[in-house]
Specification:
With 260 residues, the chain is α+β, with helices and mostly antiparallel strands. It contains 10 helices and 7 strands. The strands form 2 sheets. The protein has a 5-stranded mixed sheet with strand order 2-3-1-6-7, with helices on both faces. Helix 6 crosses helix 7 and helix 8 crosses helix 10. The protein starts with a helix and ends with a helix. 26% of the residues are buried.
Length: 260
């Protein structure tokens, strides 16, 4: 993609090393001096008339350079924000990456939550049979599916490979179960993305309740253990961590957490 005129201008002005910095600093000072001298020589009679005229001339000299500096600073801030967004985003799915997901969840102070760890079932077989390009499209489809399955305010991220994570903020037992069931539904790829092949995938989910003030990493470990059970027990299902052995018990545990 061809860089914009603004980017090319900044690239031309930005120093590339100590010597380049000195050369461009001298050029900038020289330009300012020449411009100042030109304005001073051509407005000498006006400067002598009043303080207002003198201030107007100073403004005319300084304004272009002040605006330029502010423009560069504004552009630099915009670029820094874009870089921060890129650093926090998984390039393939557009979801927050692992670091960003953990940071967002760590900042949550709304009460107890539920952590889901989600893994695509038989993903290696999709890659082996249809190629990595279709595999990437499969991951993007799962990411879109997760976004569509959540409530407003819930957090989702891709934490590595074919593994995703979800954090439900302060759900009722019914809400947690409904979201889990939506997540576990089959994800179908558009035939136009697969060369006409009919491809659909399922996911396995491990879930754990996260209480206020509790260790998030511990909840993630419990969810990971539950995910392993979900994989071992047939895939395309959700398993709850710890003593939670069923949806009914899960709702009971969440309800207790809410009361506590």
């Amino acid at each position: 993609m061809k860089p914009s005129i603004v980017i090319r201008l900044i690239d031309a002005v930005a120093p590339r090393g100590p010597l380049d910095f000195c050369a461009k600093a001298i050029a900038l000072v020289a330009t300012f001096t020449v411009f100042d001298s030109f304005v001073t020589l051509n407005t000498a009679e006006f400067q002598a008339r009043s303080l207002a005229h003198s201030m107007a001339i100073t403004f005319l000299i300084g304004a272009p350079f002040g605006v330029f500096v502010m423009f560069v600073m504004s552009l630099q801030r915009s670029l820094q924000e874009k870089l921060a967004q890129i650093a926090a985003t998984d390039f393939l799915t557009g979801l927050p990456n692992r670091r960003s997901f953990l940071n967002d969840v760590g900042q949550d102070r709304l009460g107890q939550g539920v952590v889901f760890l989600i893994d695509a079932d038989h993903f290696k077989a999709v890659n082996d049979r249809f190629g990595h390009e279709v595999g990437d499209k499969c991951l993007r489809a799962i990411g879109d599916h997760l976004r569509a399955s959540l409530r407003k305010g819930d957090i989702v991220g891709r934490i590595g490979g074919e593994e995703f994570a979800v954090y439900l903020r302060d759900p009722t037992p019914e809400e947690a179960q409904i979201v889990a069931e939506r997540i576990c539904s089959r994800v179908s790829l558009d035939r136009s993305d697969t060369g006409g092949a009919a491809i659909s995938v399922t996911v396995s989910v491990g879930a754990a309740v996260h209480l206020p003030g509790a260790d998030l990493e511990a909840a993630l470990r419990h969810a990971d253990d539950a995910l392993y059970r979900a994989k071992s027990n047939g895939r395309a299902r959700i398993e709850w961590a710890g003593a939670i052995e069923s949806a009914e018990n899960a709702q009971r545990d969440i309800g207790r957490a809410m009361i506590a």
